[in-house]
Write a structure and sequence with these properties.
single chain; mainly alpha; two-stranded antiparallel sheet; 48% helix; elongated
């Protein structure tokens, strides 16, 4: 104990003494930002901001669009998707011809062929009406490449 106080109590007393403001130091004003030399300026007319008077227009002002043009415009109809020619070829022989699997292919080249075929034919990458054909083509390609990989392992 120091002078009749515990160490904890003496630390609290010292912190309280340090917190007391000096009369010389000027307290910062509550409406000012420390380090900012000027106050904030707003577009205010008679105590009301100009932006608050046209709330519905504020969105269009930010987008730099004319409100009348946006409300009057009708969305253009989407064109019908056209099936790519390669998605019409779903026979196993046609897919095999596209893959061009040969006896000289290695596991590495077969993997590259699988990825290249998937980039062009994956069902997630085509329009919804053509996903069945894309799925058939991917199943056939995976079947043919898996069979070629099995033959390599022997």
């Amino acid at each position: 104990m120091l002078f009749g106080q515990s160490v904890f109590q003496s630390v609290l007393e010292r912190l309280k003494a340090e917190e007391e403001p000096d009369d010389d130091a000027e307290a910062p004003a509550a409406h000012r930002v420390s380090g900012l030399a000027t106050g904030l300026a707003f577009d205010v007319m008679e105590g009301v901001s100009a932006a608050s008077q046209r709330i519905g227009q504020a969105y269009f002002d930010n987008l730099e669009l004319d409100a009348a043009a946006v409300t009057a415009a009708e969305p253009a109809p989407l064109p019908e998707p056209v099936m790519p020619d390669h998605l019409t070829r779903t026979a196993p022989a046609e897919v095999a011809a596209e893959l061009a699997i040969s006896a000289a292919d290695t596991a590495l080249t077969l993997g590259e062929k699988r990825r290249a075929f998937a980039r062009a034919n994956h069902p997630d990458g085509v329009a919804l009406p053509f996903r069945d054909n894309a799925t058939k083509r991917m199943m056939l390609a995976n079947l043919l490449i898996d069979e070629a990989l099995r033959r390599l392992a022997r």
